[in-house]
Design goal:
The complex is a heterodimer of chains A (243) and B (293). Chain A is an alpha/beta fold. Chain A contains eight helices and nine strands. Chain B has 293 residues and is mainly α. Helices cover 71% and strands 1% of the residues of chain B. Chain B has twelve helices and two strands, in the order ββαααααααααααα. The interface between A and B is large, with 41 and 38 residues. The structure holds adenosine-5'-diphosphate and magnesium ion.
């Protein structure tokens, strides 16, 4: 069994800072450091998680339990305060697809820009370009600026670029909650296809029925602690029981 | 992009600094292109703004300083600088490059915050792309400068052209280094932008762009003048004067002593050290960008 993601004892504290300016920090220093400039908040506490290649894992938990924060550590956007995160192969986040889109550029320019942001090479984007446009069902609008796209077209194109990056590990955060019905179906079908191909998936979704269909394993987070890690049905049952 | 360990697992988010930028040069190219496209979209004058703004600035300075304050040499003002217009413009193009590059690089991390807190990518790309975009804007100004010089009978030597390239390199290294430094600092303290604005204003006047270096030496004496020369922008501007302006005159105006033998290498070293400092600071701070933005 090859490990795809290895999270060992990570802790993350956020500093809730009350100031954003040199001026305020200076005043605080001059006044003899009275009061707290910042308060700390534990978002992840001794989290351990080992995911094997080809596993499909659902991260469950209430809002603010640390699911997105954990995904950000796996993708490298955040670095833990202590503990280690290690991954194998390319990791791509379907986290807020379209984050790298620019409204004033054409669909075509955005495919190139976003593809490169997600780590594709020029040759890979060229090779997959037609397939990206076809999956997104954008057709002749590909050379129109994306600000003229409907929100559905915009999401389809962004999602299409993201799934065409062809990484080993996919991180999916809540994106299944957006878009219209047919688009959601298409996304879910694509994600199931990726799972069937043996890609490693880590999925965050509030739709418990959906994650039960896609994933084999469930990890329950609560206030930054792993409360349960095991078969998806049991995880979903516990999640339902907590409500 | 990431740090590899022996069993094939890598630690995500641990970048390789500016080496990552070289590896991601395709993305760098796209970011620069995006910036240029977006900036000039919908503006009627398009790229012409790159000519109009420095043009107006130049005319104002030329009239105020060259004519009113008498910096230009004329039959009634024998002590002025010959071809003051070219003297002024060859310094201004370099200062414009520095101002735009550092200003935009300092804002680039906060400006791209939406992306940085969602997707991992080499974050040094953003300040470097800002400097690159400014270099693209520098180019048309350089063309005008060269045209004006040729009109005034410019006959540079190969050494002078080479020195001009090095002068440009000094400013590029310096603005990248300071851009990394302030770009990162801006994430933590949003008012460091004000500090940069102040620095840019000082930079314009703390190098011999509008006036002659001899005035500084006369007033400051040798010790303080040496300090004045340590500023890499001063050296770069003097190099540009030597390369572009001096060959259009009779060449009788003195060049700062040891400009090529000492100050040009010193300027390169100081800029390189600033780049190293900016890079180290950036790498120390970038791990927390996503949560602070
Ligand atoms: N950059 C940040 N700075 C401070 N607090 C944060 C930051 N990001 C997230 N948090 C806090 O950490 C907790 C966990 O957030 P998150 O991982 O987004 O939860 P989830 O995705 O499970 O809803 C929340 O209470 C949130 O407010
Ligand atoms: Mg979340």
């Amino acid at each position: 069994m090859t490990t795809a993601i290895e999270v060992r004892g990570i802790n993350k504290q956020f500093v809730l800072r009350h100031t954003r300016s040199i001026k305020e920090a200076f005043v605080w220093l001059m006044k003899g450091r009275k009061g707290d400039l910042s308060a700390k908040f534990h978002a992840l506490r001794d989290v351990d998680l080992t995911v094997a290649q080809g596993e499909t894992v659902a991260l469950l938990g209430f809002n603010g339990s640390g699911k997105s924060t954990l995904l950000k550590h796996i993708s490298g956007v955040m670095i833990p305060d202590s503990g280690t995160v290690r991954t194998r192969g390319r990791v791509a986040g379907l986290i807020e697809v379209g984050a790298g889109f620019h409204h004033d550029l054409s669909g075509r320019d955005n495919v190139y820009l976003n593809g490169a942001i997600l780590g594709m090479t020029e040759a890979q984007i060229k090779e997959r370009f037609d397939s990206i446009v076809e999956f997104a069902e954008i057709g002749e609008f590909i050379d129109t600026e994306v600000k003229f796209y409907s929100s559905g077209m915009y999401l389809r194109l962004a999602f299409s670029v993201a799934v065409h990056t062809d990484p080993e590990v996919f991180l999916v955060d809540e994106i299944l909650a957006v878009g219209d019905e047919p688009f959601q179906k298409k996304c879910i079908a694509k994600i199931q296809e990726l799972a069937a191909e043996g890609k490693t998936l880590v999925v965050v979704s509030h739709d418990l029925d959906l994650v039960a269909r896609i994933c084999d394993r469930g990890v329950l987070l609560d206030h930054g602690n792993v409360m349960f890690d095991g078969p998806i049905d049991e995880a979903v049952a516990r999640m339902r029981g907590q409500r | 992009m990431s740090q590899t360990t022996d069993d094939g697992l890598v630690r995500p988010g641990v970048g390789g600094g500016l080496a990552d930028v070289v590896r991601a040069r395709f993305l760098l190219k796209l970011l620069v292109r995006k910036e240029l496209k977006v900036r000039y979209r919908g503006s009627v004058l398009g790229l012409l703004w790159s000519y109009v703004k420095p043009g107006v600035q130049f005319i104002v300075f030329y009239i105020a300083l060259g004519v009113f304050l008498g910096l230009e040499k004329s039959p009634r003002n024998e002590n002025g600088l010959p071809n003051y217009a070219i003297y002024l413009f060859s310094g201004i193009v370099l200062i414009n490059f520095f101002t735009e590059a550092l200003g935009n690089a300092s804002r680039s991390i906060v400006g791209n915050g939406g992306l940085i807190k969602k997707i991992y990518l080499p974050r040094q790309l953003f300040p470097v792309a800002s400097v690159w975009v400014s270099a693209v804007h520098f180019f048309p100004q350089l063309v005008i400068l060269v045209a004006a010089c040729l009109f005034a009978g410019w006959h540079p030597s190969v050494f002078q052209l080479g020195a001009a390239v090095l002068g440009f390199v000094i400013v590029a290294l310096l603005s990248t280094g300071l851009g990394l430094l302030f770009g990162a600092a801006n994430v933590y303290f949003r008012d460091s932008e004000n500090f940069v604005d102040m620095l840019l204003m000082v930079a314009t006047w703390a190098s011999p762009v509008m006036y002659s270096w001899t005035m500084v030496q006369d007033k400051l004496g040798p010790v303080w003048f040496t300090l004045y020369q340590v500023n890499p922008i001063t050296v770069a501007v003097e190099t540009f004067h030597w390369a572009f302006w001096l060959p259009t005159t009779d060449g009788s105006t003195p060049v700062p002593p040891h400009l090529l033998s000492i100050w040009l290498p010193v300027g390169l070293v100081v800029s390189a050290l600033v780049l190293l400092w900016g890079q180290l600071t950036f790498r120390r701070l970038e791990g927390r960008f996503a949560q602070e933005l």
